[in-house]
Design a protein that fits this description.
Elements: H1 2-5, H2 7-11, E1 22-26, H3 31-42, E2 46-53, H4 59-72, E3 75-80, H5 87-90, H6 96-115, E4 119-121, H7 135-142, H8 147-150, H9 155-165, H10 190-206, H11 216-222
Parallel strand pairs: 1-2, 1-4, 2-3
Length: about 240
């Protein structure tokens, strides 16, 4: 089993998961969710991947999600959400990332209920800092389970395990979202996102696989937001 699963066997991200449960996975197409989907699929767990596509996200991530699900033979659904119609998020308040995570997880949970699935998983890893990730608050509120974090797998561990499994996402650069590059408090519009996309393309031209893009925590901390405040959470 270790030869087949590589670092999965050492970290065991599926430990504690009920093999009789029907799971849903928030699947962005990034390094972490790609690895978790591969691990759970290889273990034969009943999991369906849900990719929520919005204007905030890089198109290549959606393409990677579709490709990997196809290669793994995984059950997968792409859900299009018009985030620009959500005025509370696009007002770009300090807790914008929390509101966005609530929207994404809530959308997946609705679809899961239709599919008869009961437990939502996400691919938060042990390197993620709760003070910089408003998703932790949303996950607590919605009962989302994070197997990689529970297994103690860091981002480097996930990359190493992904290489052992031959996943094409193993060395994929990290990316937060286009909204990160819209100054805090400035309304998020289609035009602002287009400018952010152009800036991202320029960064991509010179970035290596391990050159993680600063997340919203760093961006908002520079703007003076308090990492410990419940209302000023950061991604």
């Amino acid at each position: 089993m270790e030869d087949e699963l590589g670092s999965i066997a050492r970290f065991n991200p599926y430990a504690g998961l009920d093999r009789d449960a029907r799971y849903g996975l928030a699947f962005s197409g990034g390094v972490d969710s790609a690895y978790l989907l591969a691990a759970l699929t290889r273990q034969g767990l009943d999991v369906k991947a849900y990719t929520v596509s919005t204007a905030f996200q890089l198109p290549r991530d959606t393409a990677d999600a579709l490709r990997l699900a196809r290669e793994l033979g995984a059950d997968h659904e792409l859900i299009e959400v018009d985030v620009l119609r959500h005025a509370d998020i696009c007002a770009n308040p300090p807790d914008r990332c929390y509101l966005c995570k609530r929207l994404i997880f809530g959308t997946i949970l609705e679809r899961m209920r239709e599919d008869g699935r009961t437990v939502l998983l996400d691919a938060t890893n042990a390197s993620d800092n709760p003070s910089h990730r408003p998703g932790f608050r949303a996950m607590r509120e919605l009962g989302v389970v994070s197997p990689l974090r529970l297994a103690g797998m860091t981002k480097d561990d996930v990359r190493a395990a992904s290489r052992e499994l031959g996943l094409f996402t193993a060395d994929k650069p990290s990316f937060a979202c286009f909204a990160v590059h819209v100054p805090a408090g400035e309304p998020i519009t289609a035009e602002a996102l287009a400018r952010a996309a152009q800036s991202q393309a320029a960064r991509d031209a010179g970035a290596g696989a391990d050159d993680d893009v600063p997340d919203d925590g760093a961006t908002r901390e520079a703007a003076g937001y308090d990492a410990t405040s419940e209302t000023n959470e950061k991604r």
